[in-house]
Each structure stands twice: as structure tokens, then as C-alpha cells.
């Protein structure tokens, strides 16, 4: 009633009636749904993963009191929270249970306190992709300071948006950033400061990194090429099924 009073059209469904993620996919398509709200992190939330529709979670109680003790359910719920745009807890104790299980509250408070004490640094929460890309385009550079990466989407997005990249010299980053060619790699804070100052003082270096980074990402990470590759792979699977 609250949501419909605000002008939204709502479809209410029992998770047990949908049975599987495919049932949710059919519902999303049939009703042309634009967003979803799930009650219970495991029973409802797990059905919403991977559909491309933004969703939020309301903790039900048994998800935090019972399902959290089941190893497989705990893993699934953690993945759901990573994809959810927000989570609602009815009590502080429920919130603390969730934070203990999936966020690190002590470390979070330390980071927030450090940011508040540091001049010129702001902590920005999650934002829609379009807004994020608009913000990146207005940045002088994108910094990836991760200590572990597989393949950094942030680096590839920055290159595609023609923004210079400074990244920590770890295997995942070094696989997509060639030092002084497509970006700059640093190993410690002192080297980062040195390279950042160099980049701000050398417009020619900035132009070269942007040009070569853009060329690299469009040649080696083209979505058109990936589409063709995956279509070919799927055809291979289809051939195996027919055989």
C-alpha cells in the first residue's frame, strides 16, 4: 500500500510459488518489472540473482537466526547481499548479526574514521553505472589499489572512458596494465606519489597513456569480439548435445 500510494505498480508473489530462478525470469518478462524487493535473504533473495533487475532485501529473521548456520545457505546469502542495492533489518541486533556474518564492522569504522580525518578524501557509496561513468570521465585518473584482482573491470572501464590508470603492481592488474604504456604501476605508497606527480606534470605522458589504453581495451576486450566468442562456444555445446 505504501509503494502504490507513491505511484508504483506492484506485483506481490510468494517465493514458494515461483520455485526457481527461471520462474522469476518469466515473471520479470511477463510483468515488465523494473525493480524487486525480497523478504527473507535466502528464500526470496536467492531467486533474484543474475536477472539484471535492481533489488533490495528485507531480512526475515529465520535467515539470520537459522539459515546463517547452514554453510551452503550462508554462502548463497552472502552472494545475494553483494548484488543487492540495500538491505533492511528490523532491529539493531539483526543488523549486527548480518554485519558480523558478511560486512567487517570494525574495519568499516576504521576506514570511515580515517577518511573523515583526511583532507581532500571522500567516501562515496555505490552508484548506478551511468553516474559512475560520468564521474570517472571528470576524474584526472583512476587508481586501483587492490591487493588482489582477477581482472579489474574498473581499470578496463577507465581505459574505455579515456581516463589514465594508476594501479598497484599485482598479477591481476599487471595482466591488463603495461607500465608506462597503457597505464602506470606502483608497488608502494611512495612510488604511487611519485608516479601521480609525474602524471600531473606531464601532459604528453597522459595523452600517450590514454591513447594506448583505449587502443588496448578496444582491441583485446571488445564486447563485439566477446559476443562472437561466446556465441561460438554455445554452438559448440549445442553440437555436443546433438551428437
Please bin the fraction of helical residues.
40-55%
Largest sheet: 3 strands, parallel
Question: For the record, what CATH class of the largest domain applies?
Answer: Alpha Beta
Radius of gyration: 22 Å
Give the amount of beta strand, in percent.
5-15%
Tally of DSSP β-strands: 6
Helix/strand structural class: mainly alpha
- List the helices and strands in order: HHHEEHHEHHHEHEHEHHH
Structure summarized in a few sentences:
With 243 residues, the chain is mainly α.
Structural summary, described in words:
The protein has helices at 2-5, 15-18, 21-31, 62-65, 71-83, 92-101, 105-117, 129-137, 153-160, 171-174, 189-201, 203-220, 223-242; strands spanning 36-39, 55-58, 86-88, 142-144, 165-168, 184-186. It is mostly helical and 243 residues long. The strands form two sheets. The protein has a three-stranded parallel sheet with strand order 1-2-3, with no helix packed on it. It has a three-stranded parallel sheet with strand order 4-5-6. The chain is globular, with a radius of gyration of 22 Å. Pfam families: Glycos_transf_1. It comes from Suricata suricatta. GO terms for molecular function: glycosyltransferase activity.
Write the layout of secondary structure elements.
Blueprint: H1 2-5, H2 15-18, H3 21-31, E1 36-39, E2 55-58, H4 62-65, H5 71-83, E3 86-88, H6 92-101, H7 105-117, H8 129-137, E4 142-144, H9 153-160, E5 165-168, H10 171-174, E6 184-186, H11 189-201, H12 203-220, H13 223-242
Parallel strand pairs: 1-2, 2-3, 4-5, 5-6
Pfam families: Glycos_transf_1
Keywords: Glycosyltransferase, Transferase
GO molecular function: glycosyltransferase activity
Amino acid at each position: 500500500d505504501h509503494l502504490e500510494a507513491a505511484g508504483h505498480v506492484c506485483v506481490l508473489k510468494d517465493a514458494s510459488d515461483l520455485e526457481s530462478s527461471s520462474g522469476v525470469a518469466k515473471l520479470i518478462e511477463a510483468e515488465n518489472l523494473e525493480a524487486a524487493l525480497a523478504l527473507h535473504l535466502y528464500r526470496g533473495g536467492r531467486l533474484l540473482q543474475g536477472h539484471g533487475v535492481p533489488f533490495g532485501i528485507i531480512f526475515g529473521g529465520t535467515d539470520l537466526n537459522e539459515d546463517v548456520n547452514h554453510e551452503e545457505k550462508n554462502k548463497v546469502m552472502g552472494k545475494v547481499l553483494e548484488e543487492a542495492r540495500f538491505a533492511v533489518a528490523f532491529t539493531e541486533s539483526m543488523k549486527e548479526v548480518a554485519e558480523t556474518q558478511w560486512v567487517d564492522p570494525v574495519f568499516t569504522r576504521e576506514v570511515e574514521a580515517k577518511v573523515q580525518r583526511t583532507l581532500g578524501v571522500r567516501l562515496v557509496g555505490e552508484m548506478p553505472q551511468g553516474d559512475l561513468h560520468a564521474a570517472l570521465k571528470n576524474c584526472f585518473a583512476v587508481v586501483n589499489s587492490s591487493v588482489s584482482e582477477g581482472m579489474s573491470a574498473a581499470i578496463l572501464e577507465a581505459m574505455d572512458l579515456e581516463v589514465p590508470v594508476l594501479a598497484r603492481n599485482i598479477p591481476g592488474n599487471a595482466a591488463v596494465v603495461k607500465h608506462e604504456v597503457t597505464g602506470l604501476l606502483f608497488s608502494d605508497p611512495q612510488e604511487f606519489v611519485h608516479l601521480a606527480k609525474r602524471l600531473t606534470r606531464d601532459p604528453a605522458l597522459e595523452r600517450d597513456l590514454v591513447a594506448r589504453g583505449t587502443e588496448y581495451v578496444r582491441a583485446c576486450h571488445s564486447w563485439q569480439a566477446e559476443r562472437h566468442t561466446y556465441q561460438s562456444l554455445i554452438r559448440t555445446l549445442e553440437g555436443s548435445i546433438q551428437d
